[in-house]
Amino acid sequence: ETGVTQTPRHLVMGMTNKKSLKCEQHLGHNAMYWYKQSAKKPLELMFVYNFKEQTENNSVPSRFSPECPNSSHLFLHLHTLQPEDSALYLCASSQGPAEGYNEQFFGPGTRLTVL
Amino acid sequence: LAKTTQPISMDSYEGQEVNITCSHNNIATNDYITWYQQFPSQGPRFIIQGYKTKVTNEVASLFIPADRKSSTLSLPRVSLSDTAVYYCLVGDMKNKAAGNKLTFGGGTRVLVKP
Questions:
Q1: DSSP character for B8?
Q2: Which residues in chain B have their CB less than 8 angstroms from residue A43's CB?
Q3: What is the pLDDT of residues B77-102, one digit of tens each?
């Protein structure tokens, strides 16, 4: 248990569906992240939020839409996805920026399958 | 962020010490060296972080030579549950502007056999 929870743990969706992934951290952190991990590929950073403000969008397609309503919650809204978007989506949080970022705490991930 | 190179995979046996070396020839003055562990279908977990010389915690030791162009993660007396992928990352983690952008490479897949 890392203090970062993600729901759902597994999601199967069609290419025309709209779904959302949810992440919640109970660590009092100010920074939150979305990562994508495809089979046989390194972890890819997608989005970074500091104090609810998006500070990084790593050239992610617009069919992925993040939302950070407060420092404890992070969402990833999905629409018109492609089969190649099937992957493990990981949320993480950390201190910072004032304290320095140090370690990131990861959630268990959502295994997404796009049919 | 500095590029890192580490072996793709390593096999070991229960009770042995596992040492994974990571090369980071272009490490910058302000960069720290951080190692994460990832089990299948889980998020990575922070193991250890260091800047120079030797760092030890309850899980592992990190050896960093004086030139800092490489580092070695040492896992003492591994068990079957240490089978995982281990990632070496280098970056200025204290940088308030960019210290949170972690770049994960392929990692080292460690298999501990009985």
A1: S
A2: 44, 87, 102, 104
A3: 999 999 999 999 888 766 666 656 77
